[in-house]
Amino acid sequence: MIHYPKIAQLKTIDRFRERCQELGISIPIQASQDSAQSTDPMADPWSMGKLRVGNRWCIHPMEGWDANPDGTASELALRRWQRFGQSGAKLIWGGEAAAVRADGRANPRQTMATKEHVSSLTLLRQTLVDAHIVAGMSADDLVVGLQLTHSGRFSRPNSKNWEPRIAYRHPLLDRKFGLVPDNQSMVWTDMQLEELIGDYVQAAKSAFEAGFNFVDVKACHGYLLHEFLSARSRPGIYGGDLEGRTRLIRTIISNIQRETPELHIGVRLSLFDRPPYEVGPEVGQPMNFDDLLPYTFGFGNDPNNPLEIDLSEPIAFLKSLQDIGVSAINLTCGSPYYNPHIQRPAIFPPSDGYLPPEDPLVGVARQINAAAECKRAVPGLPMIGSGYTYLQDFLPQVASEVVRQGMIDAVGLGRMVLSYPTLPQDSLNQNAFQRKQVCRTFSDCTTAPRKGLVSGCYPLDEHYKKMPEAGFLKSL
Questions:
Q1: pLDDT tens figures, 206-232
Q2: pTM of the entire structure?
Q3: Nearest by Cα to 313 from 327, 302, 304
Q4: Helical H runs in 24-170?
Q5: How far apart are CA 376 and CA 379, in angstroms?
Q6: Strand locations in 93-195, DSSP E?
Q7: Handedness of CA 32, 33, 35, 40 (dihedral sign)
């Protein structure tokens, strides 16, 4: 078993820098933890299309697994959105992953974004905006979106059992998740995809009616539109070359633009992927892919060595999204279902994971620098970065420096705001840093839904600490 020093043990910026040097990685960090608010680039406004965003903090969309069974907002979901509003972040990137149709839910309690759910979506958004105003902030430069998704291979709309709808047969993922080899009924036909495009358009109309500024057409984390980006073996117009593999998402976007021209569009994109990893109590190892070289089942990988990044296709895709009028890109990577250490660097793995095969700081640096490479290649397209939570106490200083250096336009937070929702506001206002609320990446917010429970911060959020489920998770 490999032991890595916990980042909380590093204590000082100098020790943080030393650890990065020991690992041979580059993570920019602000020289002093006591920089004046007037010099903090995180406080600078910026533009997302015609929308004015008041600062450089963003809240990522997260699946709470806690909507009512009919897909409407529950009290837990409303509490989460209220806390997002109080955070101080001026860009709420989706708040929630909302399914565009019932069979696309990742769990039976996922939020829905159909025309029947407009009033619920309106309530979610208004709860967030009201909390922002009550906390003493103006809503004039607050931008709120809704993430639209179909879970594809990872659909579980009715129970804990998979009900996958896939883009193509992936030899490793099919084996990992026990898909019957000869069953083609789960593979989308081109005709079925035409219907799905209409579902995305209707969901966008519902979001616009509910008052959202933009929608995120989700293409990340192994879900359906992400999987299409690697569908080289799929015949027909939605597979093959990059033009074909990106046609579905580009068509969805252009149809939304035609039907709802006042609605801005973003894309959360898994910039690069990895082969799936084996689950177990040992240090994680990728499933054997030797007989699949050159590896044609990933996006943003080197086909001759899929453990290495090749951003040539992702950058070409980003340029095409800019050309069709996408307002901003939220960059992430990998999938929590089959290589979580890539997407969510953490010392403590989720229950269906494995021990980290690298110091999590390596994973943080990988995301920061890959995003910076994209920003250099497509400088006119606003980009939001991911993967910062593991930085913990050093997060505000790294965020300020990557924005200061122009490596990214804004910094997004996910699981961090489940435990410490006001981190952006505290950082901007130079309030005392609430170290006891800082996410230590225990991964309970992932383990809980894997066990059929609602997602939340059971170790640090007092509300979740008191739930009976907290004891069950602790025993795991």
A1: 999 999 999 999 999 999 999 999 999
A2: 0.96
A3: 302
A4: 75-86, 118-134
A5: 5
A6: 97-99, 143-149
A7: positive
